[in-house]
Amino acid sequence: MSVLDLSPILKGSTPAQAFRNTLNLARHAEEWGYKRYWLAEHHNMPGIASAATAVVIGYVAGGTSTIRVGSGGVMLPNHAPLVIAEQFGTLESLYPGRIDLGLGRAPGTDEPTTNALRRGRGDSVDQFPRDVMELQAYFRAAVPGQAVRAVPGAGLKVPIWLLGSSLYSAQLAAALGLPYAFASHFAPDHLLAALALYRDEFRPSEALQRPHAMACISVFAADTDREAARMFTSLQQQWVNRRRGISGPLNPPLDSTERLWSDLERGGLEQAQRESIVGSRDKVRRALEAFIEKTGVDELMVTGQIFDHASRVRSFEIVAEMAIQSSESANV
User: Fold this and answer.
1) Would you tell me how many other CB atoms lie within 10 Å of the CB of residue 110?
2) Assigned domain for 181 exists
């Protein structure tokens, strides 16, 4: 079990507070036994504070001791591979054995912002595999006469994951022999097909001998179903607003969503969020078990855009408690 954190900026709050909340949740996650704590790169989104992903990873890793910290992910089209190698080589040097590098193919933003990032070079989709392989090469030990090397970075074993919500990244992860993470928390349509493709076409590599798959889902866990459903309305508002072209911080929850959206918007929301798990302890436990059985994933990553920080922390605590109970039951 692991955590994906988008460092939500709350309505009426600031990015500084979002970062303090992130570190607080990471420390709790470490205490509760979560394996990884990943942060995601998004740009020009007033509700997400983790744009400078490597910087926030360093902040979280420096404030924790044992939990792995990484990117879920770095959007590689926005960056030169050498820069990412140097950033994550630096992180691995500072926090050895604790850094993960998850890579995404999308820019994580809109077209004007992509151009502002100065990576809108009109590259074909084939550039992403080349960039991934170039990045892998920078992490290998430098050889005599090598003209360009990552310092730090060369010779460091930073695990690379490929992330995606389609068959493309699943196929590439299989071809390169890399671990694969599916974004079923916002785009679940190709979940089972992507996992099957990844497993069927996997080729062993120096990095990985057998396929290793993870899926991310949204979980809103509370002491009652009603409380969990109310927490979920913050994400629902955010999803609908983005489809309307409205950006802003994460809104507080609503007691009712009546008249919040059209029938068409409701259908799209239900489709995109159909893997989200919302409810009290027993409901969440049954849903988690069913998801794991359905997908056969090796790891599960949990996220939750929850407005009230105490409620957010409590949601992850409930999931951790159930994971511990399931593990103890399996060992009996």
Assistant:
1) 14
2) no
164 falls within a domain: no
Q: At what angle do helices 53-62 and 15-32 cross, to 10 degrees?
A: 50
Helix and strand element counts for the chain (H, E):
11, 9
State both tokens at 174.
């299989």
Q: pLDDT for 235-279, tens place per residue?
A: 999 999 999 999 999 999 999 998 889 999 999 999 999 999 999
If asked whether residues 6 and 121 sit together in one domain, one would say yes
Looking at the structure of the chain, the number of domains it has is 2
Residue pLDDT, tens place only, 161-211: 999 999 999 999 999 999 999 999 999 999 999 999 999 999 999 999 999
What residues contact residue 104 under an 8 Å CB cut-off, 6+ apart?
41, 73, 74, 75, 76, 163, 164, 169
Structural tokens at position 253: 């929850």
Q: Residue 198 is encoded by which pair of tokens?
A: 């990844």
Which structural domain range is residue 276 located in?
A: 216-332
Within a domain: 221: yes
Would you tell me how many other CB atoms lie within 10 Å of the CB of residue 209? 10
Whether residue 230 sits in one domain with residue 81: no
Q: What is residue 95's DSSP assignment?
A: S
In the numeric block, the tokens 């389609």 are attached to 166
Q: What span, in angstroms and rounded, lies between the C-alpha atoms of 64 and 85?
A: 23
Q: Which residues, in sequence order, are CB contacts of 185 under 8 Å at separation 6+?
A: 4, 216, 217, 218, 275, 276, 303
pTM: 0.94
pLDDT band at 332 (very low <50, low <70, confident <90, very high): very low
